[in-house]
Amino acid sequence: MTGYGEAERETAAGTLRVEVRTVNHRHFNANFRIPGALAPWEGELREWLRAHFARGHVNCSIRLEPPAGSAAARGLRVDEERVTAYMALFRDLGTRLGVPGEPDLALLTRFSDIFVRDEGEAEQVEVAAEELRAVVDDAARQNLRMREDEGRRLHDDLEGRLRAIDAALAAVEERAPARLVAERERLRNAIAELSGGVAVDPDRLAQEVAYLAERWDINEELVRFRSHNELFRELLDAGAAEAVGKRLSFLVQEMNREANTIGSKANDAAISHRVVAIKEEIERLREQVENVE
Questions:
Q1: What is the mean pLDDT of the chain?
Q2: Where would a tag sit more exposed on the chain, N or C end, judged by fewer CB atoms within 10 A?
Q3: Which helix or strand (DSSP H or E) is residue 63 part of?
Q4: Which stretches within 22-128 are classed as H helix?
């Protein structure tokens, strides 16, 4: 599920700014863009974020802006050799292509690599663990609030899919007995035609219909399918702290298995059409469940 959160905090080392972005993924995967001074905290940062997010790609960006006038702030300088190289490249390009004009500061400042830290002047900055975690937690909580808003919309969509499946299952259940009646009449007419008008043995015909009824019986599949739907709803509405995405994914697989079995036993165009509609809804469920933590 996508989300975004940001937070900042003033510390003795400067202003800490944190951005946390999340996108869908089956597992937890954290990536960081952090200043070198905070690199030793990467392991802790991963665990702090894992406490908020059980699944998903989590991208965390942290900036530390030293206080104005500090040695760390004064340590920033322009790499004049790199600027000279850029100028030469642009002038050469303009000459070869016949493009008039001179490169200016507005153009050069688009290249962030011309600004470098003068390690000889910069002082070592230190950020307390509790301060770093506080701002990371604030950004993560903002991200979660955005995800919760999306989650409510996702819940409504999933519930709508389940209602559509329930309606299709009810139609399948209603149609199922009519298959046997139609098949019994078809067999009766076929036997009468082949036997030249000889009366059909009702007991033998009843045996054939009973055999077909056993082969085509979908009652167990319908019961299991409905139980999967009920459990799916319970997990959606539980509001539990534990992640339910993986369990929902498993239920979707089981729903698809039951739909395939019903389709293989259908032997009826109307039921087959309903099964196709059910499988379309299951596929949409599968796609949306990937967004559920």
A1: 82
A2: C
A3: strand 56-65
A4: 42-50, 71-74, 80-97, 105-108
More confident position, 266 or 32? 32
Is 270 exposed, middle or buried, given 0-12, 13-18 or 19+ CB atoms closer than 10 A?
middle
Write the DSSP symbol of residue 38.
Answer: G
Separation between Cα atoms, residue 185 and residue 128, nearest integer Å: 83
Yes or no: say if 256 and 224 are a contact pair by the CB < 8 Å rule: no
Most confidently modeled range among 73-87, 115-129, 153-167: 153-167
CATH of domain 3-69+125-144: 3.30.230
Sequence ranges of the domains in the chain: 3-69+125-144, 76-117, 147-289
Contact (Cβ atoms closer than 8 angstroms) between residue 91 and residue 63? no
Q: Which residues pair with 61 in a beta bridge?
A: 19, 33
N-terminal to C-terminal alpha carbon distance within the chain:
8
| Rounded Cα distance, 91 and 110, in Å | 17
- Write out the two tokens for 77: 């300088």
* pLDDT tens-digit readout, 175-201: 887 776 666 666 666 655 666 656 666
For 67, left (φ over 0), alpha (ψ -120 to 50), or beta?
A: beta
Q: Which of 158, 154, 155, 150 is nearest to 255 (CA)?
A: 158
Q: What DSSP designation does 99 have?
A: -
pTM above 0.70, yes or no: no
| Residue 10, beta-bridge partner list | 15
Number of alpha carbons in the 13 Å side-chain half-sphere of residue 18: 26
* 110: exposed, middle or buried (Cβ count in 10 Å: 0-12, 13-18, 19+): exposed
